[in-house]
Specification:
About 30% of the residues lie in helices and about 20% in strands. The longest helix is centred in the C-terminal third of the chain and has 10 residues.
Length: about 100
């Protein structure tokens, strides 16, 4: 059973993203939206945690939110950028979703 974890808060302001990474299971998907996209930037103090999660989970970022924050092209290697249609596909292709607030 696969789960899509949706995170919308910056990992530098809230613990929701860290909690998500601690609870997500192998094979789950993690989608960063809104302010959480700053967690996708390579070289940050949070990037090692995201890289570790990518060993057994698929990590996505909403491309429009990266662009809105001037971070296009700054996401670490291995993170998959999706558009809004891709967001919908992720929700449809996973058995359940969990939003981390």
């Amino acid at each position: 059973m696969s789960m899509l974890h949706i995170v919308n808060k910056s990992p530098f302001e809230r613990v929701a993203f860290a909690s998500c990474l601690a609870h997500a299971n192998a094979g789950d998907s993690i989608l960063m939206i809104e302010d959480a996209v700053v967690g996708a930037v390579d070289g940050s103090s949070f990037s090692d945690k995201v890289k570790a999660a990518m060993s057994d989970k698929t990590v996505y970022v909403l491309g429009a939110d990266l662009a809105a924050r001037g971070l296009e092209g700054k996401a670490m290697e291995g993170i998959v950028s999706v558009d809004y249609a891709g967001f919908v596909d992720l929700t449809a292709n996973n058995d359940t979703t969990q939003s981390w607030l």
